[in-house]
């Protein structure tokens, strides 16, 4: 930048600023020293950092800036000359004036420890008092630790030096080069990284337990053997399934080397499972970080283990797509995340023991995309990302799940061989650099022989989800597509490669495929004849569009098919996942009633043998009951559904994963509806040595016990003293979170008042800052039951929104607003004729009208919350016969 009026307090980096800076400078290397030797003293809220950056300027005499969200800057020396701090340093930037052709800047500063999962997060283990640290930067929080050029296209080599206790693990992206100890403080010097972006640098420090293994390499691609390590908190050591994690890691490295033919370029491969993590995981090359929720301390289901495997593979795919070749700016975020999401599922499907990976993708990832893509705030997969605030908001279901779904459609469209060949060429052509969508599409056109611009225009540059339905005409059946754009109007007609299946009831009582035919809808086509498919009516027959789930589309079932799937299971797990995704969309759209969905779930759920799908349908049934049924019908349905679930505990297999999903659902049902409280008391009172209760083999561990305690607390059946006593039995990171939710959920006005304001301010009753996990746990308790206890706080909620947004990080502000949003109300629905008359909708819309200049990202959070509420109210009115189906 060359403007002398540069705002040094401006935290929100804009794309045009980044583009200008990228044309002005070339960055070569960083040398960064971070001193965490006093991190155990929780009274110390900062730590020292020394940074050296070497870079060239292509316009000598120009001015630019570094990004820096520091506690304090003590010294800035540019090309040997000390700069005046009062005119050089702002709250978010450091001015670098009068640059030479070759430059070196040295900064001595102090940075804040974080409790929000942004920057250098510090966590004190409540069980043993030990302190653990790690960094999390995406998209732009490396500047919270050390000053830098915080944009993905200014890659450089990074040499880190890390100080900490002599008995700590100290780790970074690369291997140690030296390790010295002086007066109890260790200093580790790490090897320089290859060229990489700032947001994927990382540091880890603390008394982590570590395990080691080795991968044998891949001679065909020229990849040498590499060392593997796993890190986790010491108190979690007994729960770390190192054998399975290492096996998945080795299988993934084999798979991606076979697929890409490009050697892993980052040396070692470490994986750290860390506390209070904001994300599922982060693809830091050489040291991937994961939420430690992937190390469950209670009984884990096969679906949870599969989810961990998928995340491991997702992050590993990033080593090539995202780390080796990186987007120029954050409007290319979707490509790396969509690619990793697709490849993560593909790797689990092809290279691990887990079955049903694509079924899980259909009913979990796509479900997320379908919800996100029907908000009026939706955006094309290739989004217009003007600044960092917009970037943070686009880590969403469009960027990840819709993008991955569309890539799956693209692979079906051009063929797997052409897609994989394009990936290999792309990595070789742009390795260590930055590239764009056009670069990838150009390579794909080379390998497939197909022009990709029309495909890109309708799939990547238009918003909204396709709806597929069929009808009969004189010549047979025809598939129709509609592409409503929730922002208004209609999106272009899209090409689809898809299959249509016919299912009929077999002798085992399951719907089994009897025929399948494949079709292509071309660009611009609104309909496709499917004359080969027998669509004739029959008892218990299903016509399933998008069979095998190749395309991204909400499937509409005809009435005969709908009746069949609500009575009988489908034998094929992927078809079953596709159908239940269709049913859930129909509930949310008001095309079928919540009661009908619940009837189907009660009839079929015991026959859903895919553990993840079974858990998903049960979870959605609770949402259907609590949000989409009218309030006056919930008690009756909760009793019915609770009785069915309780009975199913003895039918799902002793100690089985599905039995565990059923008991988890029971606790959620009891929390919100007050049913089965005697059974909750049995779960909560089970002696830890006693074994199962309610059903043979049912494991009543810490998770189940605390879930029951939260349900009892929300219904006023346990008090603070008992909850505190339960916590004293075992204090760890998870029991502390569960305890916080249980305490906050008590239906006592003063308790809810204190909890609500703790979330609003981010400060608890003891004056301590709530970490990200504890803030979310408190908010979960606040809204657990009895919304009338906090309804009086709504005016304060609306008046506090802008203050929350400006004073807190986007991540914590979003958690706060979503956690406290008053979308749980139903009492006011009486007398409301349409959703727009609901008092919260009225208040929210008034706030939007009066705050048209508020931050776009804040407005987006409010708009999406309001649209969820509108859907819920509309569905309730429809169930009462007071409204008509949406769309």
TrEMBL record:
Alphabetical keyword list: Aminopeptidase, Hydrolase, Metal-binding, Metalloprotease, Protease, Zinc
Ranges in coiled-coil conformation: none
Family annotation (Pfam families): ERAP1_C (PF11838), Peptidase_M1 (PF01433), Peptidase_M1_N (PF17900)
Broad enzyme group: hydrolase
Location of the Peptidase M1 membrane alanine aminopeptidase domain: 249-454
Molecular-function annotations in GO: alanyl aminopeptidase activity
Record keyword Hydrolase present: yes
All copies of domain ERAP1-like C-terminal, residue ranges: 543-870
Cofactor(s) the protein requires to work: Zn(2+)
All residue ranges annotated as the Aminopeptidase N-like N-terminal domain in the record: 103-200
Domain of life: Bacteria
InterPro entries: Aminopeptidase_N-like_N, Aminopeptidase_N-like_N_sf, ERAP1-like_C_dom, Pept_M1_aminopeptidase, Peptidase_M1, Peptidase_M1_aminopeptidases, Peptidase_M1_dom, Peptidase_M4/M1_CTD_sf
EC number: 3.4.11.2
Recorded catalytic activity of this chain's protein: Release of an N-terminal amino acid, Xaa-|-Yaa- from a peptide, amide or arylamide. Xaa is preferably Ala, but may be most amino acids including Pro (slow action). When a terminal hydrophobic residue is followed by a prolyl residue, the two may be released as an intact Xaa-Pro dipeptide
Family: Belongs to the peptidase M1 family.
Name listed for the protein in its UniProt record: Aminopeptidase N
Annotated source species: Citricoccus muralis
Gene: pepN
């Amino acid at each position: 930048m060359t403007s002398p009026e540069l705002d040094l307090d401006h935290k929100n980096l804009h794309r045009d600023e980044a583009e200008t800076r990228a044309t002005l400078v070339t960055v070569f290397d960083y040398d960064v020293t971070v001193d965490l030797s006093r991190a155990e003293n929780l009274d110390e809220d900062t730590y020292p950092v020394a940074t050296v950056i070497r870079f060239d300027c292509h316009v000598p005499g120009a001015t630019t800036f570094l990004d820096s969200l520091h506690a304090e800057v003590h010294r800035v020396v540019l090309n040997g000359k000390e700069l005046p701090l009062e005119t050089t340093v702002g709250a978010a930037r450091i001015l670098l004036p009068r640059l030479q052709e070759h430059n070196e800047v040295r900064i001595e500063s102090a940075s804040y420890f974080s409790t929000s999962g942004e920057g250098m997060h510090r966590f004190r283990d409540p069980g043993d008092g030990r302190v653990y640290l790690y960094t999390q930067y995406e998209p732009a929080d490396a500047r919270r630790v050390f000053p830098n050029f915080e944009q993905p296209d200014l890659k450089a080599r990074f040499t880190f030096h890390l100080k900490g206790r002599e008995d700590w693990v100290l780790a970074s992206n690369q291997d140690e080069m030296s390790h010295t100890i002086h007066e109890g403080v260790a200093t580790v010097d790490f090897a320089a990284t290859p060229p990489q972006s700032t947001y994927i640098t990382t540091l880890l420090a603390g008394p982590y337990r570590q395990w080691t293994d080795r991968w044998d390499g891949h001679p065909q691609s020229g990849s040498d053997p590499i060392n593997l390590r796993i890190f986790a908190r010491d108190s979690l050591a007994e729960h770390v399934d190192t054998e399975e994690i290492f096996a998945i890691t080795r299988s993934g490295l084999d798979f991606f080397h076979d697929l890409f033919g490009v050697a892993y370029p980052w040396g070692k491969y470490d994986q750290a499972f860390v506390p209070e993590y904001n994300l599922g995981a982060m693809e830091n090359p050489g040291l991937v970080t994961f939420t430690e929720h992937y190390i469950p301390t209670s009984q884990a289901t096969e679906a949870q283990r599969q989810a961990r495997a998928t995340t491991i593979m997702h992050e590993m795919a990033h080593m090539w797509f995202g780390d080796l070749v990186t987007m120029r700016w954050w409007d290319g975020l979707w490509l790396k995340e969509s690619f990793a999401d697709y490849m993560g599922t593909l790797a689990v499907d092809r290279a691990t023991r887990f079955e049903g990976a694509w079924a899980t993708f259909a009913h979990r990832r796509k479900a997320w995309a379908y919800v996100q893509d029907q908000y009026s705030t939706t955006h094309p997969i290739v989004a217009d990302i003007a600044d960092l605030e917009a970037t943070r908001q686009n880590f969403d279901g469009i960027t990840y799940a819709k993008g991955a779904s569309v890539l799956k459609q693209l692979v079906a469209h051009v063929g797997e061989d052409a897609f994989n060949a394009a990936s290999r060429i792309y990595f070789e052509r742009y390795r260590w650099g930055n590239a764009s969508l056009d670069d990838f599409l150009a390579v794909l056109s080379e390998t497939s022989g197909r022009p990709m611009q029309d495909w890109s225009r309708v799939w990547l540059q238009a918003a909204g989800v396709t709806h597929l339905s069929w009808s009969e005409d004189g010549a047979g059946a025809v598939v129709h597509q509609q592409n409503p754009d929730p922002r208004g109007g209609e999106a272009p007609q899209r090409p689809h490669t898809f299959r249509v299946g016919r299912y009929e009831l077999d002798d085992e009582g399951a719907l089994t495929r009897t025929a399948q035919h494949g079709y292509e809808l071309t660009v611009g086509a609104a309909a496709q004849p499917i004359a080969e498919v027998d669509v004739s009516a029959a008892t218990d027959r299903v016509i399933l569009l998008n069979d095998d789930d190749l395309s991204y589309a909400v499937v509409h079932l005809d009435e005969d098919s709908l009746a069949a799937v609500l009575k009988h299971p489908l034998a094929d797990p992927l078809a079953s996942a596709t159908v239940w995704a269709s049913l859930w969309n129909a509930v949310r759209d008001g095309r079928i009633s919540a009661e009908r969905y619940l009837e189907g779930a009660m009839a079929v759920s015991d026959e859903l043998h895919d553990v993840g799908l079974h858990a998903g349908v049960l979870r959605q049934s609770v949402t259907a009951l609590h949000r989409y049924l009218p309030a006056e019908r919930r008690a009756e349905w909760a009793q019915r559904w609770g009785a069915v679930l309780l009975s199913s505990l003895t039918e799902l297999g002793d100690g089985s994963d599905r039995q565990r999903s059923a008991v988890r659902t029971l606790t959620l049902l009891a929390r919100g509806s007050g049913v089965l409280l005697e059974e909750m008391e049995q779960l909560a009172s089970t002696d830890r040595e006693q074994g199962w209760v309610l059903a043979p083999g049912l494991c009543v561990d810490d998770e189940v016990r605390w879930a029951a305690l939260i349900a009892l607390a929300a219904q006023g059946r346990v008090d603070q003293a008992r909850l505190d006593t339960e916590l004293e039995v075992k204090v760890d990171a998870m029991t502390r979170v569960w305890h916080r939710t249980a305490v906050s959920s008590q239906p006592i006005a003063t308790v809810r008042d204190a909890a609500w304001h703790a979330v609003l301010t981010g400060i608890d009753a003891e004056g301590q800052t709530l970490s990200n996990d504890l803030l979310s746990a408190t908010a979960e308790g606040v809204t657990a039951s009895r919304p009338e206890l906090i309804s009086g706080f709504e005016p304060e909620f609306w008046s506090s929104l802008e203050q929350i947004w400006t004073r807190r990080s986007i991540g914590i502000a979003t958690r706060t607003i979503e956690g406290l949003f008053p979308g749980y109300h139903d009492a006011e629905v009486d007398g409301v004729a349409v959703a727009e008359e609901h008092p919260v909708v009225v208040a929210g819309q008034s706030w939007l009208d009066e705050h048209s200049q508020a931050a776009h990202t804040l407005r987006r959070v409010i708009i999406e919350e309001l649209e969820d509420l509108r859907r819920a109210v509309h569905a309730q009115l429809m169930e009462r016969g007071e409204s008509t189906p949406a769309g």
